[in-house]
Fold each of these.
Amino acid sequence: MSTEDDLNIRIAEALQVSSVKEDLHHDTHAVHPHQILTIPEDGIHSGRQQQNTSNNTDMLLTQDRCTLIRKLRKVYCLLDQSVKTVNSAYGVQNLTQISSCLACIVVETYGIAVNLHGLSNALNGDQRILNVVHISLWTGLMVWRIVGISYSCEMVIQEARRTQRLVTKLQMLSLSASSGVQEELQLFGEQLAGSPLHYSAAGFFTLDLSLLKSIVGAVTTYLVILIQFSLADTNVQLL
């Protein structure tokens, strides 16, 4: 299985096989003992050899799978510790950078609004357009910083959630209880649920794509307030 779609197909097939087995189980109980066919001894002997060979192969594959899941658990533990280290080392820096970028975006967006709507009569047309271009480039740089931080953090969080979703789907497959794979998957699922990954700015807010919605709302609110004050000052000067 190389993709999640393959896993979904395997889960659907496992559910169908389990339903067919249940039907056959009910049909077997309904068959009369005299209707059961007698299998020759040679067929039984060859069947046992094939079964032993398949059991040995399945045992080796099961051991490899258990080892792989244990390695994945260790890797996730190291990743979780790395995320905590990044939060503690760069939390204050992320808070300062996001706050400064937010303040710059508010001020620069207000400057663009002032130049476009002619709230300031100190500049002529050409100089006003040049200021709008400069301010827009600087505002785009601030927005790019915030989007870059939020998007990179969101991708790590989404991959962790995808891993948890895949582990949950793997637990739905019909695996032997004695193989140990089901137990390893259960432990891995508990580990993923107990220590979810998240980035934060010194604990004040979470760094993900939801931060962009909050920033857009804050910029819009402050921009409306500043423009209202500017219009009020302009009306007072005209009076």
Amino acid sequence: MDIAAVSALPYEEFVDIFGNVVENCPIVTAAVWSQRPFVSLSALEAAISDFIDVLPEAGKEGILRCHPDLAGRHLQGGTLTRESREEQAGAGMDALDSSEASRMSRLNGEYKERFGFPFVICARMNDKANILLQLSARCQNARAVERARGIEEVKKICRLRLQALVLNHAPNKL
């Protein structure tokens, strides 16, 4: 689908297609729909990033809270979104040995206890060893640093999801 087709989508279809580029947060996509037409995929991505950037800190934390724990109960229970399931599987989160799973669960708990939102990292840009390393290291950060870092990871996830939805369908159109 080219960017002209994206821009021409009616509201409901736009939100249906792009509503999970920010995990479990279709309100972000709904809010940027009114900024059509988008001149490029980069412009759509920028509109989403700008929307997130102007949110108050509580709104940014809300976006972070929409993300599931990596290798957590949603993965184990099969209730992840399709995108998250594929991303976590690609990073090996569905293939942790018992020691890795125990460490991941413990660190996820510590992280959420310390910051009040789950650890967010772009799984498609990492493997399980690096995710565990980053989770352990980032548990030591200040809350404001982690909130900002988490939002940057959300933007990476969003960029890759947008590319998968648009570029993979029409690589020469954008």
Amino acid sequence: MRSSLAPGIWLLRAFSRDSWYRGLILLLTFLIYTCYHLSRKPISVVKSQLHRNCTGLENPNNNSNSTTWCSWAPFDQENYKELLGGVDDAFLIAYAVGMFISGIFGERLSIRYYLFAGMLLSGIFTALFGLGYYWNIHQLWYYVLVQLFNGLAQTTGWPSVVTCVGNWFGKGKRGFIMGIWNSHTSVGNILGSLIAGIWVDSAWGLSFIVPGIIIAVTGVISFFFLVENPEDVDCTPPQHHNVPVEDLATNVDTHCAERDCGTEGAGYSKESNEKPGAISFLGALRIPGVVEFSLCLLFAKLVSYTFLFWLPLYIVNVAHFGPKEAGDLSTLFDVGGIIGGILAGIISDYTNGRATTCCVMLIVAAPMLFLYNSVGQSGIGSSVVMLIICGALVNGPYALITTAVSADLGTHKSLRGNAKALSTVAAIIDGTGSVGAALGPLLAGLISPTGWNNVFYMLISADILACLFLSRLVFKEIQAWRGYENRNRGSCLALTHPR
């Protein structure tokens, strides 16, 4: 009598070879971009340590009457917020400019080599910022220069991982899959905050050195295990059955009939068996929806990155927590981001309305930001709840646009199956968003000396502008839903009342 199959082996056999590879790619790209964000977060936690109120602390230099003697020069000046904002913007401006170029390189170079080089350089520059503590460096230009080069190095990440995931996963439940996958952003922010918080009070240099080592080591792992395309390991490529919202009302039944869906999934054009070349920058801009979503992301990312770089300092100044406690509490904003990203993906998959989902979440986010600033710091309970809600509403649209929307547009029907366009489209959308990411912390640094209320008014205004840029696409989605319902109603009437 044959023995029954072991439960573990039965589980292994339940998944196909393709499924195991897809799971590996999803996990590996998740870890890769988690490390990118993990290495960006320490600066927001360490800010409150670079400029401290030293009143009540024991001063080894008894002849000094300064209340900031324990701060780290050059951030011990009264204009420290502007200086810290300048350090942020060195990173963010370089990231924004480099992102537009990075997508072009991402299409033409091996993703595996490109990620390895980028993660290694990111690790080096992140660690160099922390080494300024041990080398006793107090020149502003050093920290600005390190952040500038780090911003350029970090542009290698996003176009590469989005392209890799797009190569392995088809349209299907892309919003749901990428909503879960995109939680790497928030997971990286949370881990970065927690790791930086361990040493922020004792030796803040390690708050940068340790994340630098982690991203460099992960880069080595990706070099040995990342597979760029399913064809490279004889796996079946996905089929990109992408139905644009403007086609729903007029082309629901004939969409796949008019397109060679089978060959398009493999990245080939309908007329030719040759693989298409890389798309031009202007060609990517002409894809319907790229401009609108890019401008929306500019303002959505402005809000998100202002929280990323300034939330711990805001909590220290307003709620009067210590640097470590403020860093830990700020992670709740990213916990909300995980929830919001998944919900946005599920809702947009179910409704087939990416723009409407983003718009509704941004509209609700505006009053929630006002409430958080007004009553969110009145107690630990209200602060926890409001941070999670605001994180979900702010980061949900940001997550949806940078993942599922970018992948949708990168496989738009006008590209005739050109999968190479995905890197350029992702870079354009995220690059435009990164302009907002640079503006947000800069404006926060300039406005915060006039009061934190004004910073939140700026964030609420940015949310409203993000909604306005999606208004045309939202209108089209609503029209498409109505047209689809009318077609279904007409079909039902034809069946019940045949001529």
